[in-house]
Amino acid sequence: MIKIKHPQELAHLRCLALSAQALLQTQAYGSGLEGARNAINHIGYVQGDSAINLIL
User: Fold this and answer.
1) Nearest-angstrom CA–CA distance, 50 and 15
2) What's CA 19's distance to the chain center, in Å?
3) pTM
4) Lower Cβ count inside 10 Å, N or C end of the chain?
5) Which of 7, 9, 35, 4 is nearest to 22 (CA)?
6) Residue 56 has pLDDT above 70, yes or no
7) Cα–Cα distance, 14 to 25 (Å, whole number)
8) pLDDT tens-digit profile of 1-39?
9) CA gap 2, 38 in Å, rounded
């Protein structure tokens, strides 16, 4: 288990996790429906918010 001693470490780990999924880049997977499909295929899951409607 990783022990976080400073808030900066948590921010750095969060940045690494997002970067590993290519979520820090603008349109890393393309745009539109094809981009959404590419992102889902790469990341492997979809997390929907109940406050919005998703059409896939």
Assistant:
1) 25
2) 8
3) 0.58
4) N
5) 35
6) no
7) 15
8) 778 888 888 899 999 999 988 889 889 999 999 999 999
9) 31
